[in-house]
Amino acid sequence: MALLILISVVFSVNFCSFVSAYDLDPLQDLCVAVQDSNQSAVFVNGRFCKDAKLANADDFYASGFNVSGMPTPTNLGFSVNALNVNRMPGLNTLGISMARADLEPFGLISPHIHPRATELILVLEGTIYVGFVVPDTRNPFKSRLFDKILHPGDAFVIPQSMVHIQYNLGTTNATHLSSFNSQNPGVHMISYQLFGSNPPILDDVLVKGFQLDKKVVDHLRAQFSSKS
Ligand SMILES: *[C@@H]1O[C@H](CO)[C@@H](O)[C@H](O)[C@H]1NC(C)=O
Ligand SMILES: *[C@@H]1O[C@H](CO)[C@@H](O)[C@H](O)[C@H]1NC(C)=O
Ligand SMILES: *[C@@H]1O[C@H](CO)[C@@H](O)[C@H](O)[C@H]1NC(C)=O
């Protein structure tokens, strides 16, 4: 019985910390991220602040979002130009960031999640199909899809941590802006994570987990590995 209580306490603590995972409010006016290559040797929850006296307007400025980002090394046909704390050190501790996404005709941002942020999408150009899936609260083996076709000026919100996609339905390029309530929303591309991990996930786990033939697992591994 004591063990059962301990297990349920551990589970609920973990669950609560997962659902409340968002950027904390800043504890000072300015906390411009230090641009020191050595900081990679120390890990904190966010970036170190540089001395506020040394902060300047450039720390709060970024440019280059009038063009698309570097194309991804995949054949999915999309590129993302992310405006996060890595591009603008002044975003550190502010709990906000943006991205510009460009999709070629029939380009797809394949199923992914942003573990630390809700994403608010605003279409500037083209026709974009968006959607996210949510598990049934009573039955995790059931899932609901919320989807929409967006035109310029339309907006759609993806709740934090939900699996979602953006797909260009049109024969012209499409562009959308996204805002995130995190300085560093993160991205987990599901097919790459599961079929392209290093070291690879055990064959039998993927075969059983996705109810696939081993040959299909080999095929998917070949598609999603080493295309970082
Ligand atoms: C970074 O590390 C190198 C080598 O350890 C050191 O020489 C340099 O002074 C460090 N820079 C800062 C800003 O601490
Ligand atoms: C984008 O903006 C930069 C200035 O930040 C400018 O130099 C460049 O010419 C612009 N490019 C396009 C395609 O408008
Ligand atoms: C569409 O985007 C691609 C890059 O993704 C670019 O090379 C091409 O010129 C764009 N086409 C139009 C009509 O803007």
UniProtKB/TrEMBL annotation:
It comes from the Eukaryota. Mn(2+) binds at residues 112, 114, 119, 164. Residues 1-21 form the signal peptide. Residues 65-218 form the Cupin type-1 domain. Pfam families: Cupin_1. One of its GO terms (cellular component) is apoplast. Oxalate binds at residues 114, 119. It is found in: Secreted, Extracellular space, Apoplast. The keyword Oxidoreductase does not apply. PROSITE patterns: GERMIN. Keywords: Apoplast, Disulfide bond, Manganese, Metal-binding, Secreted, Signal. The keyword tRNA-binding does not apply. GO terms for molecular function: manganese ion binding. SMART domains: Cupin_1. Its main location: secreted. Disulfide bonds join 31-49. Belongs to the germin family. This is Germin-like protein. It comes from Solanum chilense.
